[in-house]
Each structure stands twice: as structure tokens, then as C-alpha cells.
Amino acid sequence: MKQFSFMIKTFGCQMNERDSEIMGQLLSENGYIESMDMDNADVVILNTCSIRAKAEQKAMSLLGVLRKVKKRRPSMKICIAGCVAQQEGQAILQRMPHVDLVIGPQNLYELAGLLATLDGTPRVAIGMSDSYEIPAFIPALPRLLQQKELQSATPVAPFRKFLTIMQGCNNYCTYCVVPYTRGREISRKVSDIIDEAHVLVDAGVREITLLGQNVNSYGRTNQVTDAGGDYSFSQLLREVAAIEGLKRLRFTTSNPKDLSPELMRCFGEIEILCPQFHLPVQSGSNAVLARMNRNYTRELYLQQVADLRAVRPDIALSTDVIAGFPGESDDDFEQTMDLLEEVRFHSSFSFKYSDRPGTRSADFDDKVVEQVKSERLSRFQGRQDTICLEHNSLYVSKSLPIMVEKITEKGLVGRTDTNHIVHVEEKIVCVPGDIVTVTISHAGQHSLNGILQG
Ligand code: SAH
Ligand code: SF4
Ligand code: F3S
Which residues line ligand 2 at a C-beta cut-off of 6 Å? Predict the structure, then answer.
């Protein structure tokens, strides 16, 4: 019997990366084999992201390329998954009749069945579940090992893994599609999370990143946690951290409005919790934050930064910023620049605001013109780049443990616990996941260089 091959191309956030792994595992378990070759795969899945207009365009332009491949090879099946699938549903088929299957993030588990029953008529599966339970889905050991051989194809090598602890979001920030594409916020069961973490660590994973759109509110909404009572994200962190063999623990992402003092204390108390925190601020102006429906103020944010640094002085803070939100005045934007000066983030992701379908801000007046958005964005990024370099220079001469990520021809590439990439041009016998100590010899804007110690 012919074995079908599949290829998954992932766009967007780490949650999509984990979802792609799940789809890959489901297909492997159903007899498909993974391929790296889009031109020859029997099934091509685009796991799409809709967070910004540009993200959506990227997937759509690849879909245009696939149209040509399908002309040559009509037996190929094209599947659109992820947040654009959820958002557009049937409309994708009108625009792109060469698509065979449209499948939303909450329908992942139906993938193999749907593919097997495709009969030439395109199918759309975007039903949002109203169940408050996320299926337990344990990563299969054979697949983890197979991924080791296919390292280039996986977004994160097997010694580092993402673990989804919740899905959806209830916050309805006015610019954001996530509550519409991922549905209600649901926390996974503690026991499922701990089981999954054990499987990962037993398979050789040394670093786990807990994932959710707002992990700080884990267990607080629609909870199905089997721990009962007031189980919090901090408690979950402590339980995962206690797993023997795990060397590093991270989490992402967090809304400042739900950042508790208890969680901040974890940075001083949990040894393997990395001193790195992604805390998206979006804007430094209270007026803009209010129109974004973020439910915190600039003052609260700055206080949180001070508190985090008091608990863990070496913590590396990163953030997300939107430039040119509707109604953002020059003065509002100056306040964002000013906040950057006050906090001096180690790094940041910044984006031009774009309207997203169905969001409230898409209907706001006072849209900022494209050129002003671009100017603001490049001013922010220019200043952040300088600050990055200044921060990175402070690591020079320091001795730091790095986790090896890749063995290269010249030496190796590793990562500090503060999430900085370090290039080492020396050879030693090691494998990805090992921790070695280096002395930082040079700092660039986006990475460091180091010399092996001892
Ligand atoms: N859950 C996270 C954010 C996830 S989305 C949080 O609450 O902070 C990742 C980032 O994309 C956001 O932080 C925001 O900076 C950006 N983003 C989201 N919607 C956007 C839009 N419509 N235009 C521009 N940037 C947007
Ligand atoms: Fe979007 Fe806000 Fe939810 Fe983050 S917290 S996913 S920005 S709605
Ligand atoms: Fe994108 Fe959906 Fe993630 S919109 S950022 S893939 S939750």
C-alpha cells in the first residue's frame, strides 16, 4: 500500500508550533510519513496565523505558490489550518478553490479522519467546542526521536519543547483576533500537564516552555484543573520545576493585568526558572492602554518591572509594542518611547498596528496613517537596537552557563538562561541540551560570542 507523505508549514506563535507537532504526530500515527519537500508531499498543511495583516498575507502568498504545484500534481491535498482557517472558514474556498480542507485550531484532532474521507469535495471543519476540556495529548516517544533526525524541520529541537497549558483567551484586547480564533480561555488539567512534562523529560528534553496566551490566569477561568480550589500558575510552575532531570523552565506569554506578586516571587525561589520574562506592554500611554482594553496602567507596569528586578536583578525583560494604534497621538507615542527609556528592555517585538477582522478597533476612528506608523515603528526599533547592544555589552567578560542548541562546523551555538544566543568557535564533545560554561568575549546587537571555560 502506498504510504502518503505530509509536510506542515507553520506560521505564527509557539501555540501554532505545538499544534503543528500534534498534527504531525496524528498523521504519523495514521501511517503518513513526514517530508521536507513541498513539491512532492502528498498532503501540505499550512498552519496559519492571523494576528497581523502581514502574518495572514504570508500564508496566503504561499497558498498562491501551492496553486501552481497543484496544477502540476492534482493529487496533492492542500489543507489550511490555524487561525486564518478559523477566521475565514468557507470564504477561503471561494477565494482559493484549490484548497481541500480548512480546519480550525479546535478541530485538530479530526485531521486524520477528515483527510481519509476527502472525496474530491473541499471540507471545512471550524466548529468551536463549548467543552471546557482540552484532550490529553501525550507526545509520542518514537516521534520525539524521529524529530531528532529531522531536526531542521522542527521549529525547536527535541531537547527544548513547548508544553501548552491553556487555550484561547477571554481578554478581548480591542485589536486582537485571538479570542475569536482560539475561543474561550480553558486551562488544561494539572495532571495532564505534569504527565506530558514527565514524558518530555524522560525522552531527553531539558528545557520546557509553558504556553498560553495569558498563562498568568491559568486555573482562574473555566477551570477544569483537577487540583481543585485556587490552584494558580505559580503552583503549576513549582510542580513542573520539581521534575527531576529538567534543567530549565520558561513560560510565555503574560498579560500584566494578571501578574501576581506570587508569580514574581517564583523568579527568586525556583532555581530552574530562567531569569527571563516576556511581559507585553503594547503602549506607554494610559489613554491608548485604555482604548486597547488592557486593564492596567503605565504606572502599574513600571511598578511590576521594579518589583521583578528587586526579586531577580539579572532578569532579562522583553516586551511587545504596537505603533500607531487608532487615535495614538504624537504625545501618546512619546510616552511609549519614554517607557522604553525607563525600562530599557533587553529586547522587544514591535509592530505597526493593523486592522483585524471582527475586532473592535477595526471600527475605531482616527486611524493613524501608514507613514506615521512606519516612522514611529522605526524610531522605536532604532532606539531598542541601541539599548540591546548596551545591555549585551554588559555580559562581556562574564562567565555564563549556556545550553547547547546546535553543533556547527565551527563550534557550537548555545543559549543563556536570559535567552541570549551565544556563538562559540571551539570544538568540544557535546550534544544539544548539554550545559557548558563560557566567558563572553564579544557582544553584538542580537547575539553574543563566547569562549569555552576549563
Ligand atoms: N497574549 C499576548 C499577545 C499575543 S499576540 C498578550 O496579551 O500580550 C502577539 C503580539 O502581536 C501582541 O502582543 C501585539 O503586540 C501584536 N498584535 C496583536 N494584534 C495586533 C494588531 N491588530 N496589529 C498589530 N499588532 C498586533
Ligand atoms: Fe490578544 Fe489580549 Fe488575549 Fe493577548 S491578552 S491574546 S493581546 S486578547
Ligand atoms: Fe497567530 Fe493564532 Fe497564534 S493568530 S499568534 S497563530 S493564536
Answer: 169, 171-173, 176, 178-179, 213-214, 255
Q: Are 426 and 451 in contact (CB under 8 A)?
A: yes
Structural domains in the chain, sorted by start: 5-125 (3.40.50.12160), 141-393 (3.80.30.20), 399-452 (2.40.50.140)
- Please name the residue whose Cα sits nearest to atom 13 of ligand 1: 320
Residue 332, amino acid: D
pTM of the model: 0.93
| Mutate which of 8, 16, 175 for ligand 3 pocket (most atoms within 8 A of beta carbon) | 16
224 vs 403: CA distance, rounded Å: 35
Which ligand is located closest to the Cα atom of residue 294? 2
pLDDT digits (tens, 9 = 90+) for 186-230: 889 899 999 999 999 988 899 999 999 999 999 876 555 566 667
Packing angle between helix 190-202 and helix 141-149, nearest 10 degrees? 50
**For ligand 2, atom 2: residue with the closest CA:** 173
**How far is 83 from 93, CA to CA, in rounded Å?**
15
